[in-house]
Design goal:
single chain; 236 residues; alpha/beta; BirA Bifunctional Protein, domain 2; 9-stranded mixed sheet; 3-stranded mixed sheet; 31% strand
Length: 236
């Protein structure tokens, strides 16, 4: 039984570890429902969630990431109050912090399409369409998941990173869109393990602070359009 509704939950500012626990609770519930459906003939309708949040300073590295892409010692991380986590998502190392939109879609892809590559391309499309609102041309690079732009000097830079996990066609983790972050935190890592390209943000490109609430609204609308879904807002 397909369900193309997306329940949006904006959980505000939350540490990475707390947000991960929040995700895992929903993720595991959907997995358990799908297991039950095997004996119930698919009678339980699974939900799809889009979790929006913003983290305190943290570096996270994916299961296939190279730790040498972390360029700062552990004691310096402590001094600078930056957390570090190894995660079970795909991708290499990245930074999360204030001024970024973390989007965690916990979708049952049986409700949409069972194709992980297509799912990633759809996430990229959501971001590219969101950037268009700000007259910014986003694009993809074959072999490098994410959304890229040309900065004001014509240099190619990443503005949104992706890293996901999926089990039984249920997704978690997701995307990190740079809106107004302090980009200096990227100096302590080789972002996504890519050495020859930089990082930018909406603020950096537009030379002004960007209303993060407005970006969230545009992002949600583009999830609706790209995934051809109905959007509902859910409060705890």
């Amino acid at each position: 039984m397909k369900n193309k509704k997306i329940l949006v939950k904006d959980i505000g500012k939350l540490s990475f570890s707390d947000a991960l626990q929040y995700q895992e609770k929903i993720f595991n519930k959907i997995i358990n429902q799908k297991v039950q459906n095997r004996s119930l003939g698919g009678k339980i309708k699974t939900n799809n969630f889009l979790i929006l949040t913003e983290h305190s300073h943290v570096y996270t590295i994916g299961k296939s990431g190279d730790i040498s892409n972390l360029l700062i010692a552990k004691d310096e991380l402590i001094k600078k109050k930056i957390e570090f986590y190894k995660t079970n998502r795909g991708g290499d190392i990245t930074y999360h912090g204030p001024g970024q939109i973390m989007g965690y879609p916990i979708f049952d892809l049986d409700n949409f399409f069972t194709d992980i590559n297509l799912y990633l391309r759809k996430l990229e499309e959501v971001i590219i369409n969101t950037l268009m609102f700000y007259d910014i041309v986003g694009f993809t690079i074959k072999g490098d998941t994410g959304v890229w732009v040309k900065d004001n000097d014509g240099l190619t830079k990443k503005i949104c990173a992706f890293g996901i996990r999926a089990s039984r066609w249920v997704t978690m983790h997701g995307l990190c869109l740079n809106v107004n972050p302090d980009l200096s935190y990227f100096n302590f890592i080789i972002p996504c393990g890519i050495k020859n390209k930089g990082i930018t943000s909406l603020q950096d490109l537009k030379k002004e602070d960007i209303d993060i609430k407005e970006v969230k609204s545009i992002l949600i609308e583009n999830f609706k359009l790209v995934f051809k879904a109905e959007i509902n807002f859910e409060k705890d």
